[in-house]
Amino acid sequence: MTTKSKKQGTPKGTSSSNQPTGIEYLSRNVQGKKRMSDNDKVAFAKAMEKGFAVGRRLQLMFDLRDAVDLLRAAKVPPRSMAIEFDQADPVLHLLDEAGDAAKEFIEACGPLLALLPQLEPALDKLDLYLKNNRVIRNQRRSLTDRLLVGLAVARIEEVLGNDLRLEPKEMVEFFKDIDLFDGDGPDADGWKEILWKARHRTDKSGKKVPDKTRGRLLDALELAVTNRAKKD
Prior knowledge:
The chain is mainly alpha-helical. It has helices spanning 22-26, 38-73, 90-108, 110-114, 120-132, 134-138, 145-160, 168-177, 188-199, 216-231, and strands spanning 29-30, 33-34. A hairpin with a 2-residue loop joins strand 1 and strand 2 (33-34). The chain is elongated. It starts with 21 loop residues before the first helix and ends with a helix.
């Protein structure tokens, strides 16, 4: 993982080789003040964990939902009473082999297809949720775990209310030195892009935009929550 970026620079009096990393970097002093309190670090770590958990769960849910739709649409052909003949012709023999392989696989899927009716209550509940939360359904391919990590962190920053904005390098250090997740997260430049998008301070071309024209995803999520609260 790349943990240093030219855009980030190096603190005065240090070099890239002895710049603090991990807990030391997250706890470093900036202008005589501790950069992040222990409570801040816990809050950000939980936000990242929540973002990944929700993102991966949503992706799997939609993948399973698509697979179930295809299974429900599958129509098992009726049993054939055709008389089987030994085929000397190589093409007809190949067709027979293909038919036999298909028949064996379809029969093996029988127990799986038989379980589909048991999914109906859960499907009805899920479909009702998606109908009432169209932003989740319409943005399904945008709601990646990486985006939701950035979104969760951006919201935590607002909740903390102390003008603390997690830097891309700090995000990298969370992933690198605090064993929260399997595998590596994005590098510093990757997190910079993710955080800017999650905070909705750039448009599609990457140009900065004012607060009053924030990104559609965050606006839509906030509006959906507000409308839902009014209904409840």
